[in-house]
Amino acid sequence: MGDQGLGTRLREAGVRRGDLIGLAIAPDGAVAVAPRASSGTPADGLMTTAGQVAQADEEIRPRWVTWSQETARQLIAAGVRVSTCWDVAAVHRLIYGGWRADPGWAWAHLRGLPLDKVPADNGKDNLIPDLFSSEPTEAPDPVAADGYLEPTFARGGWARTPEALRKWARLAGEAAEMQRSAVERIATAHSESTAELLCAELAADGLPVLLSALEELLADLIGPRPRSEQEAHVIRAARDAEVLKHASPGFPADLRSPVQVKTMLSAAGVDVPDTRAWRLEPLADGSPLVKALLEWRKAERIATTYGYSWLDANLGSDGRLRGGWTGSDGAAGRMTASAGLHNMPAMLRRAVIAEPGHLFVRADLGQIEPRVLAAVSGDRALAQATQNDDMYLPVGQELGVDRPTAKVAMIAAMYGQTTGHGGEAARRMRKAYPVAMGYLDDGDRNARNGNDLRTYGGRLVRMSQGGSPAQVAGRGRYGRNALIQGAAAELFKMWAVTVRARGNDLGAAIVLCLHDELLLHVPEENADQAVRLLADCLAETARRWAPRGDVRFIADISVVRSWSDAKAG
DNA sequence: TGCGGCTATTG
DNA sequence: CACAATAGCCGCAG
């Protein structure tokens, strides 16, 4: 029995490609899998190893059911990467909205249990059998008598017995089956789930960075690495002095305090309501103080957020910059990353350089939000405009305005402009694209009224009731935009997981996801194929995501050695 | 010590 | 300066 591979056992039990199989992994690396009871395997599931899971994944490619991204991280730590999954937490966020998605919370939703009575984790392992007892112990049941999940399980106390681990795996499978009947679009549940696998891989693998190049850039911007705390202090004071020498004597200000900076500027005859860069920018030519302050801000920003301590904390000795990744944030469902991976200053991106023998293939979606609007609203006229590489040209023609005006009018519609209130271009936009504008207005109105929204891909966006008129207006803009941003995020993730799946043979690894941009790290001999892969996957995704097929999505794809090289060949 | 405000960076 | 995010520092309340 034990010498028979997991793949063989599952196949003999009738498991086929895409079938849901519960999977749980213990901190010590023990793995339990639980196919559906009807498939003829033991109802309690079976114990196996991470290596066996990898083999079975290759042989059958089922859809492994996990409670959260944590399982993927544990599998990766055990050296195993699976092809697809059903992530209960990710699908929970899709169906029910909000951020919280722990097993007990998701389970209570699926069983229709009162949410105010979901038991809190008291930190006690009251279900753990006494390991020193000679009495045979029965594995505890993860479902308590009242129907709620036992909080101990979600924390990992269950891992201590194989029986409990098998039950935990089976329960994940049951949760997934229930979720499957509740999701609006299965395809979204699949891509949002597998995006969690991608996130775990991004966190584990990191972004290739050339340390020497990054240190050179930092030296240019903020000086060499200080050798001591004292030296760091001296450098900081010297930087401050470059600004303060332009200030009026008697007004020594703490440059890190906005209030004091405002007072200092006022004493120099510069009166501003706040000290934001865009407000000070026009005054820089007439004031050496303002000019010095703005330069100080840039350097200070690098020094505090992207300086040597950031580098030390996040750049591994293997030249990989690592941060945590989430598959969908609390609002509209975009991916987020920490460690500055999503907001690294353009200047520093020069140090993001492919490893020897490799190249980056960079692809970003063009005008993704207005194209998504055309798709999700079903506006035929706007869909027609997406046939153009630059859709603002036909839109401008239709409205009888120039391209910049058309673009501003479109963005104002999607984001809910507060100042100016439209004008002639906005009125023509309503007439030319009534379906798209109606879709946005519906979202705005529902959000203002506190009605929950649902994106094209089926993600619930929760809206709260009440609030001041200003908050109500803010909610309207939020809801209007969430429908577009959220749908764009769903399309992007579907594209990303498709590239992930197809890129294996080329050795093409996704090393960064950035809302509408994918960065692949590829052996240089495969770079041209990777370019085609990205384009093919986008076409495939567009067909699957927006089946009517009348909206054209475009990507700008280039092969580069450094991330900052926009269009090298 | 925690948290809102201000600021900067990115898509 | 609309929509979204992460992140650091300051100033104030507890």
Description:
By secondary structure, the protein is an alpha+beta fold. The protein has 4 domains: 6-183, Nucleotidyltransferase, domain 5 (2-Layer Sandwich), CATH 3.30.420; 211-311, Taq DNA Polymerase, Chain T, domain 4, CATH 1.20.1060.10; 318-367 and 490-565, Alpha-Beta Plaits, CATH 3.30.70; 370-488, Orthogonal Bundle (DNA polymerase, domain 1). 47% of the residues lie in helices and 11% in strands. The protein is built from 22 helices and 15 strands. The protein has helices at residues 6-12, 50-59, 69-77, 88-96, 103-110, 151-155, 162-182, 186-205, 211-222, 229-244, 258-267, 277-280, 288-305, 308-314, 368-377, 380-385, 392-399, 403-415, 424-432, 434-448, 469-502, 527-545; strands at residues 20-25, 31-35, 46-48, 63-66, 85-87, 207-208, 320-321, 325-326, 336-337, 358-366, 453-454, 460-461, 509-513, 517-523, 554-560. The chain has a 5-stranded mixed sheet. Strands 13-14-10-15 form a 4-stranded antiparallel sheet. Strand 1 (20-25) and strand 2 form a beta hairpin. The longest helix has 34 residues, at 469-502. It is globular and about 80 Å long. It binds a DNA duplex (11 and 14 nucleotides) through residues 254, 256-260, 274-278, 297-298, 300-301, 304-306, 323, 329, 331-332, 334, 336-346, 364, 369, 411-412, 414-419, 477-478, 480-482, 484-485, 514-517.
